[in-house]
Specification:
Blueprint: H1 7-18, H2 23-44, E1 54-58, E2 64-66, H3 67-80, E3 86-91, E4 98-99, E5 109-117, E6 128-136, E7 158-164, E8 168-173, E9 178-184, E10 189-194, E11 205-207, H4 218-229, E12 240-241, H5 247-257, E13 260-263, H6 278-291, E14 295-297, E15 317-320, H7 322-333
Parallel strand pairs: 3-5, 11-12, 11-13
Antiparallel strand pairs: 1-2, 3-4, 5-6, 6-7, 7-8, 8-9, 9-10, 13-15, 14-15
Helix pairs in contact: 1-2, 2-3, 4-7
The structure holds 2,5-anhydro-1,6-di-O-phosphono-D-glucitol and manganese (II) ion (3 copies).
């Protein structure tokens, strides 16, 4: 695939390659591309827009909502709801399933999304992102129930993320590899800049919020301890650590230069299995990571095989460079 191909041309070529007539998936991806462009503009305005800071409201996750959490959620919904490809949607920022308003046609896809990932970073001008996952809707109700969304990650038709960093990028998969596009603001188009992205199997870099160390399980404590021990420790080499607190930015760094990312099971809040959300964060990112040759696991199970039990379910996440994740998984087996 030629560098500089627009994302629209790329998706059309992809569809021809797949030899399907699924123009509606192509069209839906087009709507998502537009949503990410509009969100990029909103995020990029920063303090000039007057929408920095938090609201008084909490989302269903128990998180105080940033103004931009709510605004970007609205942008995503309004941009994608009227195209006729969606049966319903669900998001980190909405308690329940959002049904497509009666005046718009309905389609055969469900979309789940995290409109603003890493939103604690918006006020300090650090990278944030948008994550989405597309599933097929097999029923025929005009108001699909939450249960229709509870498909394991292996059922995803497409997934991707937008990264609003020093440049805006879109990284997508439809199950045939991972491709990255950079927004050319002069022409308003995403152009293919990172064809066939692959995660290096080996790495010396890990990402974890180390302030939670006392809450982790023994295998993760052991792994991090051994990394920190460096050259003279059991791993025999020095490691580097990064933590952006935006999953999109961490996963993107890992795809570009290798690494592992962990938000593991912990005892901080015994009611939760981890921090990250299976449907909005873990599944789409795991689909991308696997398509790029990496591994994504809860520590005990492949994330894409987890049978979801609720829209807002949380899950432990350990993902990234294949050989390094295998080390962490082997420590879980020793437990
Ligand atoms: P969100 O902003 O969508 O709620 O997601 C934040 C997530 C994830 O992006 C990041 O990896 C993690 O939370 C950061 O958590 P800590 O603040 O505990 O480091
Ligand atoms: Mn949040
Ligand atoms: Mn998030
Ligand atoms: Mn979010």
């Amino acid at each position: 695939m030629q560098i500089g191909t627009t994302i629209t041309q790329f998706l059309a070529d992809e569809q021809r390659k797949l030899n399907t007539n699924q123009t509606d998936l192509l069209e839906l991806m087009g709507q998502v591309v537009t949503a990410c462009k509009v969100i990029a503009t909103a995020v990029n305005k920063g303090a000039l827009s007057g929408v920095m800071g938090s609201l008084d409201t909490e989302n269903i996750q128990g998180e105080t909502q940033k103004k931009l959490d709510v605004i970007t959620n609205e942008i995503f919904m309004q941009t994608t709801e009227r195209g006729g490809q969606l049966a319903a949607m669900a998001s980190e920022e909405m308690d329940d399933v959002y049904h497509i308003p009666g005046q718009y046609p309905r389609g055969k896809y469900l979309i789940v999304f995290d409109p603003l990932d890493g939103s604690s970073n918006v006020d300090v001008n650090i990278s944030v992102g948008t994550i989405f996952s597309i599933l097929e809707y097999k029923g025929d109700s005009a108001t699909p129930a939450a249960a229709e969304f509870l498909q394991p990650g292996t059922q995803q038709v497409a997934a991707g993320y937008a990264l609003y960093g020093s440049s805006t990028m879109l990284v997508i998969t439809t199950g045939h590899g991972v491709n990255g596009f950079t927004l050319d603001v002069n022409i308003g188009e995403f152009l293919l800049t990172h064809p066939n992205m692959m995660i290096a199997p080996d790495t010396k870099e890990f990402a974890i919020n180390a302030s939670n160390e006392r809450f982790w399980e023994a295998p993760v404590q052991r792994y991090v301890r051994e990394c920190v021990a460096g050259k003279t420790g059991p791993r025999g080499r020095d490691f580097n650590m990064r933590w952006v607190a935006s999953m999109v930015a961490e996963v993107h760094r890992i795809i570009i230069r290798g690494g592992v990312f962990m938000y593991p099971k912990d005892t901080k809040d015994p009611a939760k299995a981890g921090k990250l959300r299976l449907m909005y964060e873990a599944n789409p990112m795991s689909f991308i990571v696997e398509q790029a040759g990496g591994i994504s696991s809860t520590g005990r199970q492949r994330i894409l095989d987890v049978q979801p039990e609720g829209l807002h379910q949380r899950v432990p996440v350990i993902l990234g460079s294949k050989n390094e994740v295998e080390v962490i998984l082997s420590y879980h087996k020793d437990m």
